[in-house]
Amino acid sequence: MDYQYPISHLWSTEEIVDVIHFFQSIEKAYEKGIEKSSLIEAYRRFKEIVPGKADEKNICNEFEEVSGYSAYNVVQKMKQAAPGETIRL
Questions:
Q1: Could you list the residue ranges forming a coiled coil in this record (predicted)?
Q2: Number of domains, the chain
Q3: Where are the alpha helices (DSSP H) in the chain?
Q4: Is residue 23 a contact partner of residue 60, using CB atoms and an 8 Å limit?
């Protein structure tokens, strides 16, 4: 990883850690796969921190620009996956 995660200076340390965990879950979906339940948990926490759709889109677009990984595509696949399925892109 040769990039920085998009974070807000308004977030607490715990929130920053949780947002980074979500983006690491996105990376994991691309690199080796992640269980749907783990991804759902990370995404739910991310949405608690970033509840607005516009903010979510901006932060995820920033992440995609620096990493090449699309959080949108991973989340869409997660929503379509069966319980217990491994999400891979």
A1: none
A2: 1
A3: 13-31, 36-49, 53-67, 71-80
A4: no
What's the pTM? 0.94
* Contact between 12 and 75 (Cβ < 8 Å): no
Residue type, 7: I
- Confidence (pLDDT) at 1: 64
**pLDDT value, residue 55:** 96
Degrees (nearest 5) of the Cα angle 78, 9, 38?
Answer: 20
Residue 3 carries which side chain, given as an amino acid letter?
Y
pLDDT means per 10 residues, the chain with 89 residues, are 89 98 98 97 98 97 97 97 95
* Residues of the domain holding 58: 13-81
CATH number of the domain bearing residue 19: 1.10.220.80
Assess contact for 71 and 23: CB atoms under 8 A. Answer: yes
